[in-house]
Amino acid sequence: MAAGRAFFCVPSSIGATARRLAFASPPPRPLASAPHRRGRGRCCASISSSSDASASAPPPYVLTTPLYYVNAPPHMGSAYTTIAADAVARFQRLLQKKVIFITGTDEHGEKIATSAEASGRNPKEHCDTISNSYKMLWADLDIEYDKFIRTTDPKHEAVVNDFYSRVLSSGDLYRADYEGLYCVGCEEYKDEKELVENNCCPVHLKPCVPRKEDNYFFALSKYQHKLEELLRRNPDFVRPSYRLHEVQGWIKSGLRDFSISRASVEWGIPVPNDTKQTIYVWFDALLGYLSASLDDGEQASLQKAVDRGWPASLHLIGKDILRFHAVYWPAMLMSAGISLPDAVFGHGFLTKDGMKMGKSLGNTLEPKDLVDRFGADAVRYFFLREVEFGNDGDYSEGRFINTVNAHLANTIGNLLNRTLGLLKKNCGSMLAFDSMAAADGSSFKNSVESLVDKAKGHYENLSLTSACETVLEIGNLGNLYIDEQAPWSCFKQGGESAEKAAKDLVIILETMRIIAIALSPVTPSLSLRIYTQLGFTEDQFSTLTWEDTKWGVLKAGQAMMEPKPIFAKIETEAEEKDQATPKAAKGGKKKSGSKGLVEA
């Protein structure tokens, strides 16, 4: 399900042998619907919890990444989606919502079996290894997910089987022959008009192979008008708006039924009523958003999965899998009588040297290498700040270093460090005034509060770049204020000037406290370091909410920690070479560790 994995083709024509599937018993009666959640109308009856307690409880904020395809280890495209999702989840937790953040791995399909064979492992061993590499990377990137689902989990197969039965009972599955050119890399049939020279796939640039199969198909065309109505009534279902226009164009051009099984693929979940075929990976993997809510070892069912955490509030995906999530997935849910997710957000691609990054193209930027060199905060901040969420974005190391140094080391880190230094020198690291009293009569406090409200709106709108920019603007405001007030000079003058300087330091430190909270969805570890330098504990930091961004928390008599750089400036290669010279040894900067860093 990861970005970079292409969608499978629907047949342009289906053989005359197509036949509607029959079932021995009458279709099951739909389960009773409960009132729709989040106050938004749905396009179909929903399976929902019959529990009065769950009906009255506030709905959770359910956020998902794609389930990443394990044909190869994670790349920066996968990391980007997950970093963004983690920032959204952290912000929603600050709003005191119960968050269920779901991620995981998609582990079935022909490419998985091929990759396993190439690595000398069986498919399960291969999936175990690659899935674990995702978990390790998420830990390195400070990703705090709530649920990690693997499509090889037994509970997931049980949900897939239940879902298949409900769609079958709706009369939306039939069997048909299909023959065409098949791309193993994309795991889909291709229309000849899509192909380039020598019948090559335009994505993998490898020849497609003729293949004929007897498959099961889902009647997507039946839901043409329902999907059109969904997007007409709820244009926010697909975001950003230009992605909505893409989806509307696909639907308007006419929907064709698509294959949901493979006769030639052994590594997959068997079709319940035909064990000679396996369920196609997409019809399987999308259901991970439901099965993720179940606990390992319990009696798994589709109903339990729906009760635990559905509908999803937001699917965050790459734009290349938008068709699956905005067209196929809602139609599948309608067929099964399950409520639709609230929204699907399709972000752009990351590029390197102007080219899309992907495992298939062999030009990936390794996220593990970036974290090892620069740290999680730097990686998270750069990609969320510099890549406007929804659009494509390009990575260059020079831009990365310049951005992170200027924003995190200088604007934020240096402001805190020099303010704490002045406090230590002149006030013994003790606050002389309450922050509310210190800002009395100053317009600075109002400016900060206005920017905090602005940042909150950007987070809520998934404008992550703008949120970062706004928080940085608070830091710029603080730097401008301290430069204009020049407390170092005022302390020397003594009397009222020194008193005013002491107030100014409290004002800046209260500003830093607010920055720490407002930036914590993006740079959680950096924010923690800021907060602890202000005299708070890690436990206090972990219980913060967005309400704590209100001015007035720091109090007179509160002790600050010793000034210590919270973010190390990243050295360029030229600076590293310069430090290796005798000149550097006689008084130049010293490295602060093995990552090529110096103190800001």
Automatic annotation (TrEMBL):
<feature type="domain" description="Methionyl-tRNA synthetase anticodon-binding">
    <location>
        <begin position="443"/>
        <end position="577"/>
    </location>
</feature>
<feature type="region of interest" description="Disordered">
    <location>
        <begin position="24"/>
        <end position="56"/>
    </location>
</feature>
<dbReference type="Pfam" id="PF19303">
    <property type="entry name" value="Anticodon_3"/>
</dbReference>
<dbReference type="InterPro" id="IPR014729">
    <property type="entry name" value="Rossmann-like_a/b/a_fold"/>
</dbReference>
<dbReference type="GO" id="GO:0006431">
    <property type="term" value="P:methionyl-tRNA aminoacylation"/>
</dbReference>
<dbReference type="InterPro" id="IPR041872">
    <property type="entry name" value="Anticodon_Met"/>
</dbReference>
<keyword id="KW-0436">Ligase</keyword>
<keyword id="KW-0067">ATP-binding</keyword>
<dbReference type="GO" id="GO:0005524">
    <property type="term" value="F:ATP binding"/>
</dbReference>
<dbReference type="InterPro" id="IPR015413">
    <property type="entry name" value="Methionyl/Leucyl_tRNA_Synth"/>
</dbReference>
<dbReference type="InterPro" id="IPR009080">
    <property type="entry name" value="tRNAsynth_Ia_anticodon-bd"/>
</dbReference>
<dbReference type="GO" id="GO:0004825">
    <property type="term" value="F:methionine-tRNA ligase activity"/>
</dbReference>
<feature type="domain" description="Methionyl/Leucyl tRNA synthetase">
    <location>
        <begin position="194"/>
        <end position="420"/>
    </location>
</feature>
<keyword id="KW-0648">Protein biosynthesis</keyword>
<keyword id="KW-0030">Aminoacyl-tRNA synthetase</keyword>
<feature type="compositionally biased region" description="Low complexity">
    <location>
        <begin position="45"/>
        <end position="56"/>
    </location>
</feature>
<feature type="region of interest" description="Disordered">
    <location>
        <begin position="570"/>
        <end position="600"/>
    </location>
</feature>
<comment type="similarity">
    <text>Belongs to the class-I aminoacyl-tRNA synthetase family.</text>
</comment>
<dbReference type="Pfam" id="PF09334">
    <property type="entry name" value="tRNA-synt_1g"/>
</dbReference>
<protein>
    <recommendedName>
        <fullName>methionine--tRNA ligase</fullName>
        <ecNumber>6.1.1.10</ecNumber>
    </recommendedName>
</protein>
<dbReference type="InterPro" id="IPR033911">
    <property type="entry name" value="MetRS_core"/>
</dbReference>
<keyword id="KW-0547">Nucleotide-binding</keyword>
<dbReference type="InterPro" id="IPR014758">
    <property type="entry name" value="Met-tRNA_synth"/>
</dbReference>
<dbReference type="InterPro" id="IPR023457">
    <property type="entry name" value="Met-tRNA_synth_2"/>
</dbReference>
<dbReference type="GO" id="GO:0005739">
    <property type="term" value="C:mitochondrion"/>
</dbReference>
